Amino acid sequence: MHVDERLPGDRASLCTALMTAIRTEGTDPDRLILTHKCTACGKIQRNKVAQDDNRDAIFSLMKRKS
Ligand SMILES: [Zn+2]
User: What distance in angstroms lies between residue 25's CA and the mean position of ligand 1's atoms?
Assistant: First the structure.
């Protein structure tokens, strides 16, 4: 969800639209950087992967890249 505006975790955005993962960076599944794009305003946000992120979705993104 799009909740961060300037910094990851700042919760300053009022958009709250769904954000979808469009890209992954890195090869270690525990230290990946995920790039999300907001489906409403198109904002790009890069975040470190979180424990509660969907691993299946991440791995399918990684496979799509290679
Ligand atoms: Zn947004």
Answer: 22
pLDDT, mean of residues 42-65: 83
Q: How far apart are the first and last CA of the chain?
A: 27
Distance 41 CA to ligand 1 centre (A): 4
Q: Residue 65: pLDDT band by 50, 70, 90 thresholds? A: low
Q: What is the DSSP string of 30-58?
A: TSPEEEEEETTT--EEEEE--TTS-HHHH
Q: 16 CA distance to ligand 1 centroid (A)?
A: 6
Residue 42's region, left for phi above 0, alpha for psi from -120 to 50, else beta, is left
